[in-house]
Design a protein that fits this description.
The protein is α+β, with helices and mostly antiparallel strands and about 300 residues long. The chain is built from six helices and 15 strands.
């Protein structure tokens, strides 16, 4: 299954005059990686004034630059017999407790060992097709190093129901985190839009100009010296929301080297974040259902260690 080839036309503005074409394209096509754009230039798929150009070419103000972006072929995603920690399952949904280190759905560099590979095997392919072959049944996701509850849809009707509940913010989502520092208040709310980081495409940031509304409620569960154990309730569900929001108020998550310090005080595999509670209306019965995933062993061990330090 593949998409159609795209011809993208970009016109250089006054401020772009004199820029190298690879720099100009990186700004004009933020959805394309620099390495991908360099490959297009090398293959002669980028033209300026109707002629193929190299990456060292400098654009002129008002010049038209065209890119021929080839169709993206979607790889075949194979079912894999990977054990699943299933909290609940029926004909419409399956609720799982995702372990640390597991990617939710296939993407570049991760086409095997994902939750989707495991679900395709367990459900014998019976998953909602709304999100295509790469994300069958996936209506929401959690990061690779975040653990906890995730619901997956087995049919399109269930998917539409859960997607609508996410849209109107009626799904209960509570996360547990350990952050750096002592918060000044016992509870609070962070309202700050989140969008793609202006210079680092792999990161998100509090971004008022290009961000989408994001709301996180937090509550202190335990003060642990130089750290705080929190419950975070999501009102919205933006990419990396809790990680970005907590870092934005000076309390990044312990273990998070992306939004927190590069040198961490404990040997942890990514951020200390657990999706502990998920509640929603069942897509067929309308009954409210709530599921809980216990803290993983590493998280419990970390809390015990911090308590022992006093």
């Amino acid at each position: 299954m593949s998409g159609e080839r795209e011809r993208r036309v970009c016109v250089a503005g006054e401020a772009d005059g004199g820029l190298r074409i690879d720099v100009f394209l990186a700004a004009a096509c933020p959805d394309c990686s620099r390495s991908f754009l360099q490959r297009l230039l090398k293959e002669g798929k980028v033209t300026a004034g109707g002629k193929p150009v190299k990456s060292s070419y400098r654009v002129s103000a008002g010049e038209t630059v065209c890119c021929e972006i080839p169709a993206a072929a979607e790889p075949e995603i194979a079912p894999e017999a990977i054990p699943l920690d299933i909290l609940y399952e029926d004909a419409d949904v399956i609720v799982v407790n995702k372990p640390k280190g597991m990617v939710v759905h296939p993407a570049a560099g991760h086409y095997e060992g994902t939750l989707v590979n495991a679900l395709l095997y367990h459900c014998r392919g019976r998953l909602s097709g709304i999100n295509g072959v790469l994300r069958p049944g996936i209506v929401h996701r959690i990061d690779m190093d975040t653990t906890g509850v995730l619901v997956v849809c087995k049919n399109d009707a269930a998917h539409q129901s859960l997607a609508e509940q996410l849209k109107v913010h009626s799904i209960t989502r509570k996360y547990y985190a350990v952050v750096f520092g002592g918060l000044s208040k016992e509870e609070g709310t962070i309202r700050a839009p989140i969008g793609r980081h202006p210079t680092d495409r792999k990161k998100m940031s509090v971004n008022a100009r290009n961000g989408r509304d994001a709301v996180t409620h937090y509550r202190v569960l335990e003060r642990l010296g130089a750290y705080t154990y929190l419950e975070c309730t999501l009102e919205t569900g933006r990419t990396h929301q809790i990680r970005v929001h907590m870092a934005s108020i000076g309390h990044p998550l312990l273990g998070d080297t992306v939004y927190g310090p590069a040198r961490q005080p404990f040997a942890l595999q990514g951020q200390t974040l657990h999706a502990g509670v998920l509640g929603f209306l069942h897509p067929s019965t309308g009954e409210y259902m709530e599921f809980r995933a216990p803290l993983p062993e590493y998280f419990e061990a970390l809390l015990a260690r911090l308590r022992a330090r006093g």
